[in-house]
Amino acid sequence: MNKEIKEENNIEKGGRKIRFGSRKSDLALAQTKIVMDSVAACSPEFETELVPMETTGDKNMKPFSEASDKFGIKGLFTQELEEALLSGAIDVAVHSLKDMPVNANAELPLIAYSKREDPRDAMVLPSGHVELAPEPRIGCSSARRRVQLSALYPTARIEPVRGNINTRLRKLDCGEYDALVLAAAGLKRLGMEARVSRYFEPEEMVPAPGQGILACQGRAREDYHYLEGFRDRYGRLCAEAERAFSAALGGGCTAPVGAYARVVGDTINILGFYADESRGVIRRDSISGDAEKNRELGRELAERLLKGAERDAR
Fold first, then answer.
1. Count of C-beta atoms within a 10 Å radius of residue 31
2. Of 146, 150, 116, whose CA–CA distance to 262 is shortest?
């Protein structure tokens, strides 16, 4: 880190100012304010500052069209926030965990996980509509959703859709789609729960790893005790299990991978989904065990699904 920037950053910390970096979308800002409100409530001695930033994905959607899978790519919405962390321009970056690449930079660890909001995917119909069209055009933004929707709605045309939640809803209401599938957590955090036509239970559409959980990213070897009131043990256990599962499958921007963990007492149950579209293989399975062995269980479940996929493909 540049010496002058680091010294300036330390001076501001001495003044008890914590700068929280966020994308500029309504949802990202709302989510970052959740973290800031928690710090203000639990550590009122700190001043908090919101630093909205425009990321590559916000400024230029062209990389999506160049991706090998037009339904999704990760990393475009985190790069500028990570650069700001490294330079000292911000102290904490706030992300939707499901948007974070599973292979994190060791110098920029995930330092806190939130209590989980609703993890489910949700269907939204055009304003004023109460029934899905017989052969609907359904907009979704991931291969994971596309594969599972195709099984649930064989007559549907699944089409990619881009933009933040408000942009997608405008496209829906203007007639570009007959339905959208979005994360329930985002709709609820924006007060748009009334737009939901139906929820997909995790057993019928396995969510994205980390869906509904917020993650704070910081710099290695720094003190983030002021996030203690925000941290949630169950959120952490589920997040670590699901990300370990995804990493073991090579889960990134294009792989149809889903995972959903539940913790009850000292036991964790992980539901996993994996598809190898080139070989026409779709697998679901689950595993349970000691919650503190969450990562190991996630990796074990991934290995089990891979072995099952190999058998199915023969």
1. 24
2. 116
CB atoms within 10 A of CB 289: 17
CA distance 30 to 113: 16
Return the SS3 of 159. strand
Task: Tell me what pLDDT residue 252 has.
Answer: 54
- What distance in Å separates the CA atoms of residue 285 and residue 84, rounded to the nearest whole number? 40
The percent of residues above 90 in pLDDT, for the chain, comes to 77
Contacts of 314 (CB under 8 A, 6+ apart): none
- Cα–Cα distance list, 271 to 13, 143, 246, 261, 286 (Å): 42, 18, 12, 6, 4
Taking alpha carbons only, the member of 234, 29, 118 closest to residue 37 is 29
Name the token pair of 48: 């908090």
89 within 8 A of 56, measured Cβ to Cβ: no
**Separation between Cα atoms, residue 66 and residue 68, nearest integer Å:** 7
Decide: 37 and 114 in contact? Cβ < 8 Å: no
Q: Tell me which residue has tokens 């792989």.
A: 255
pLDDT tens by residue, 73-88:
556 668 899 999 999 9
Q: Which positions are annotated as active-site residues? A: 99
Q: What is the DSSP code string of 177-222? A: -SEEEEEHHHHHHTT-GGGEEEEEPTTTSPPPTTTT-EEEE--TT-
Encoded tokens for 184: 């329930």
Cα distance between residue 262 and residue 249, in whole Å: 20
> Model's pTM, two decimal places?
0.89
Calpha distance 233→17 (Å, rounded): 26
**Both tokens assigned to 169:** 């809803």
Measured in degrees and rounded to the nearest 5, phi and psi for residue 82 equal: -70, -40
Q: Is the dihedral of CA 7, 11, 14, 17 positive or negative?
A: negative
Compute the radius of gyration of the chain from its Cα atoms: 20
